[in-house]
Amino acid sequence: MRLEAARGNRSGLHTAITRVQQVNRDLDCSLELETTQLISELLNGPGTAVRKAL
Hints:
This is Transposase. It comes from Streptomyces glomeratus. This protein is mainly alpha-helical. Helix content is 74%, strand content 0%. It has helices at 2-6, 10-26, 33-44, 48-53.
């Protein structure tokens, strides 16, 4: 996910996020808090996840 975001590949980022979410669903697991925060940051820019938590 970080690689796609760093490359500015929004479509690739969405594909990677979807894949991570699908794997977690297949394993019947929730995303870790850190993963959710990373996804938010990558989609919305640095600091967004922290602002939402406050």
